[in-house]
Design a protein that fits this description.
Layout: H1 3-9, E1 14-18, E2 22-27, E3 31-37, E4 40-43, E5 48-52, H2 54-57, E6 67-70, E7 73-74, E8 77-78, H3 81-95, E9 105-110, H4 116-128, E10 133-138, H5 139-146, E11 157-162, E12 167-173, E13 176-183, H6 187-202, E14 204-205, H7 208-218, E15 229-236, E16 242-248, H8 249-272, H9 276-285, E17 287-290, H10 299-307, E18 311-313, H11 320-329, H12 332-338
Parallel strand pairs: 1-9, 9-10, 11-17, 17-18
Antiparallel strand pairs: 1-2, 2-3, 4-5, 4-6, 7-8, 11-12, 12-13, 14-15, 15-16
Length: 341
């Protein structure tokens, strides 16, 4: 066994999908060991972390004045350097059962249009959280590997990864990215669109958690066979008192239309810019839809309708990126080939 083989045999290698909405960590030989919201609750008085992940999310909109729940990532990149570092440190220790003396090699997936400054921020955060080596790979490539697409073959594969902060569209052939584009519109923008729509139409103020619940329960991108309704609670902006009202999936589809159309447009542009030999492959094999935002009802039907190409949803859309990154850890030659500079 060579030294690298020996090193990886005893290694604590991790693959991290550092997402705007959720962070997932894959540990070599164990599978997914962390899947939690990318949220940190901080006490402003003493700058102490009160909670991270799921516990912090439960505090959103419910904290006393001196505690703030922060999402340190915006649109798939680090907005708050210090808090991202603390969050990463917490999750890495959690992945290794709280062992302090752990120095893993880490593969982190990032959006396609990430800048050099943003890349450095991600690398530095991981190194400060005790990583020995950090490799960055494109989210769309990781998602393609995670969904089982034949990325090393000379055929075209398209992946549409709708996350929390970004939607990444990529065309892959021969283990390379032929075309990739990242639009900073995804699941979080959908939640905001719902919040703003309800505020405009009903003068009702709802929180982020409620916006997300509405999207999950009755949100859709294309007419449903049976339209749905939901009772929601919020604060009446005119009278300042709590109020309940019933909304329909038709209204929420209207609220989401602009955001969803931006994603459809990104896919359409990708199809226009793909070499004809590769786009012919999409007609036969279709494209794969993945990421948490792809769970919006009937978004696959809308994309099929708008592009005329078969669209298949990934088996485990939330985990595709981290599972793909996990497979890359096991293949050092592929890792070296795919790692971003």
């Amino acid at each position: 066994m060579n030294w690298r083989g020996l090193f990886s045999f005893f290694s604590n290698d991790l693959a991290i999908d550092l997402g705007t909405a959720n962070t997932l960590i894959y540990a070599k030989g164990k599978g997914i060991v962390v899947s939690e919201p990318s949220i940190v609750a901080i006490n402003k008085k003493n700058n102490r972390i009160e909670a991270v992940g799921r516990d912090a999310k439960e505090m959103v909109g419910r904290t006393p004045g001196d505690i703030v729940a922060i999402q340190p990532l915006r649109d798939g990149v680090i907005a708050d350097f210090e808090i991202t570092e603390k969050m990463l440190d917490y999750f890495i220790k959690k992945a290794h059962n709280r062992k302090v003396l752990v120095h893993p090699r880490i593969v982190i997936s990032v959006p396609a249009d990430i800048t050099q400054v943003e890349k450095r921020a991600v690398r530095d955060s991981a190194l400060r959280a005790n990583a020995t080596e950090v490799y960055l790979i494109e989210e769309a490539m990781a998602a393609a590997i995670g969904t089982g697409l034949p990325i090393t073959e000379p055929t075209g594969s398209m992946i549409i990864d709708i996350g929390g902060g970004t939607t990444d569209v990529a065309v892959i052939s021969l283990a390379g990215i032929v075309y990739s584009r990242s639009v900073r519109i995804a699941g979080n923008e959908m939640d905001q669109a719902i919040i703003q729509f309800i505020k405009r139409k009903y003068n009702l103020l709802i929180g982020e958690i409620t916006g997300e619940q509405i999207k999950a329960q009755i949100g859709s991108a294309f007419p449903l066979e049976e339209e749905l309704t939901l009772e929601i609670k919020g604060r009446d902006l005119v009278e300042g008192v709590p109020k309940t009202l019933t909304i329909s999936s038709v209204e929420i589809r209207e609220a989401l239309s602009e955001t969803v159309n931006t994603i459809v447009e990104a896919v359409r542009i990708a199809l226009e810019r793909t070499p004809p030999e590769l786009s012919a492959d999409f007609i036969d094999r279709g494209v794969i839809l993945t990421g948490g935002g792809s769970q919006l009802r009937n978004i696959d039907k809308l994309l099929r309708e708008e592009t005329g190409i078969p669209v298949t949803s990934a088996e485990d859309p939330m985990a595709s990126v981290v599972l793909g990154s996990g497979k890359i850890i096991d293949d050092f030659a592929l890792l070296k080939k795919l790692a971003l500079n």
